Prior knowledge:
Shape of chain A: globular
Largest sheet of chain A: 7 strands, antiparallel
Number of helices of chain B: 19
Number of strands of chain B: 12
Helix content of chain A: 25-40%
Radius of gyration of chain B: 38 Å
Strand order of the largest sheet of chain B: 3-6-1-12
Strand content of chain B: 15-25%
Distance between the termini of chain B: 44 Å
Oligomer: heterodimer
Amino acid sequence: MLEGLGKYKIMGINARNRDFIFPNNRRRFYPLVDDKLLTKKLALEAGIQVPELYGVIEFINQAGQVAEIAAPHKQFVIKPARGSGGDGITLVKDVIGGSFQKANGELISAGDMQYYITNILGGMYSMGGSSDKAILEYVVQFDPIFNEITYQGVPDIRIIVYKGVPIMAMLRLPTRKSDGKANLHKGGIGVGIEMSTGSTMYGVQGSKFVNEHPETLKPLAGRQIPRWPFLLEMASKFYDITKLGYVGVDIVLDKDKGPMVLEANARPGIAIQIANRCGLLSRTEKVDAVDVSKFTLRDRVNFALNAYK
Amino acid sequence: MRSLHVWSLALIFAAIGFGMAAYKHLTLEFPLTPDTTYKSWYVESRVDLASKNPWRQGDKPIIFTLQLPHQSERFVLVDENIVARGFGHEITESDADGNRTAVFSKRRMDANETIFYRAIVYELDSPSKQVVAAPPQPDSSYQKKNRPKLEEGEKEAPVYVAIDALIGEAKDKSASTKTFVREIYRLVGDASDDRVKLIRDSVEEELTDVELASLLLQADGISTRIAHGLKLSEDKRRAGTVQWLEVFVKNDWVGIDPEHRSFGLKDKYIVWWYGDKGLYSVEGNARAETMIAVRQNTNNALTRAIWKSGQLADLFLTFSFYNLPLDAQLVFNVLLMLPVGGLVMAFLRQVIGVKTFGTFMPVLVALAFRETGLFAGVLLFTLVVILGVIIRNYFDALKLLLVPRLTAVLTVVVIVLSLIAMITNQFGMIVGLSISLFPIVVLTMTIERMTMMWEEYGSETAIKTGLMSMGCAIIAYFAMNDETLNYLMFAFPELLLVVLALAMVMGRYNHYKLTEYIRFRQLQKSLAALEKKEAEKVK
């Protein structure tokens, strides 16, 4: 059993950190993805679509302004600017009177909301516990193609980009267990995506394989993700703006506005291998076998579409 | 490239660390376990002097000369002292035979006098070899060249004939110096042999076997010396000195065991003096009687090592923790274990893949367990964390800001600990004082992290991580509380370099964590199944 992981070229956390993150992600570029406000700004400059920013709460005395900022929008997402792993994100689907209704129907009173904001500002969810900002942004109206396999929340597509080349992707689906979040370690489902076609393959929840969504009971496999090459291009472009050689880019599909980048992650998880039934090392090897440094954006996308069959 | 760098650096560190430790162990004899003991011997010679003619005393000064034991490769004299009230005394350094003597003198002697000589003898585990100077060629009157010249027709004196006959017989039966010596010894031991009788009779004093063997060997031109010494084997109030022969073979003096009559001293003998003199001599109007007592002591090996390196004025002792004040020693005793705990954590996290609250939290908790004891520590930890989580949630409901809330939780933790201390004190338990070292801030952060995890990831993850943290703390506790390890780190602080080397190597570990084998078990199975299918298709 012990030699199997290497045989199938599965990437472990230690190898990810030592062989991929250390050499390819320079520390000074981390803030570009760790601070979601900065990521948003960079993406916009590079012509990548992101969820519209409604407002930023920086100081405790502004904590009460949530309703004010949210007034024209009704629906919004609150997240810590420097949060990690989906911690501290709340999706408000309606403002009823003074209180806010969460995606699962729960109501948050104005006071609770204010307290939640102060916790974000105090750094409860931020990496290293430093003080933080709260971001209010557009709630993605996700593409109905995922309606059948989503439960309260926004599904997103995680694409791992190595040296600018997309190497692996998965669709992440919220479940009842994950409380509207798509993060795998919170109970979301990961569905592997065939790189050459953009259609979904197998699903995984936790470390178990699943074939259908536990709540909707609809099959997960065989769903085509629209505009797949364009998504790859978006992800690949992130390499140019962040200079991070090993990065996970999270993309959502909005039914009206099209694909947009939610955030990027300089330490993307390795569970994606289970969803794809494929070791990441087999993909990185293919990239390392060619000199990708002279590749144009188009070359990189084409490589991703053709290399892993 | 980078790996090579790290590995070579780690190797150098480890080599220096182990090298220094090995030097200290082998040369300075720092023991490897704290309770290594070794034997030392307490040797005392008591001399009772009595006036021969009490009424005639005072006309002549008394001079009493006592031989003193020798320092050797194997035995070190540590603490020598002399008690001789009223006597002037002087210790003469080694004479031609290497003997040391103490000379006591007194003008007027009382009826009875007692002189004590005491020494503590350390036995070294690894005797240090010394180069021995070659003795001068023996110049015995029995040697052929020194014998009176024979006139024409005159016959050799019978004693010479006997000597030559014995030497000749021994030579015939032997091939080397050693076997020759053994053969001589054998011949000498046969009291019924006429030749032996003859030699004994012709010599004025009575000869022991050893002396006779020495005489024969010297007659053949072999350097010998007669050693008088003490057998250090058991406690004895009246230990007699024994005599043995030492022969100079192959640039070294080799003793012949007085009991086994074989080459090399089999038992522990300490040399007291060499030569044919006695243990003591008296000049003047007195009779003397000596008594040698031997007592065995068991000492801590470390004490001896420290003493020994002090004798050598060793650098390692000057820069050792044992020279620090005692309270500083206690601090470092704990401090030195921190890297060990850290290493355990690094291993658990990097190689096993355990998840804990905070990187070094379990190490700090384990440190606290050292003070409280494991059982009480685990109980306290669990109690405080559970109470803390409840109270923290209550403060959360009051909507306190983050940092002040942490302060509030911290305060409550201190209050809870104080109460526990007071209550347990009432029941006569002594956990009270020791929990003062409980890492309160660490506990507070644990409470906060655990609550957050509870909210974000659910109770299962939070409790699981909590238990794992506790498990890590217990493992770290066992590593850090290991008495031998503790002692080793303190006596050989250079082992920190080895810890450093291990940490560096672990820092370059890029293999799978043990937990990943479990995590990817399903994936591995399905990949194997897929492979099988492919293979069947090809067929």
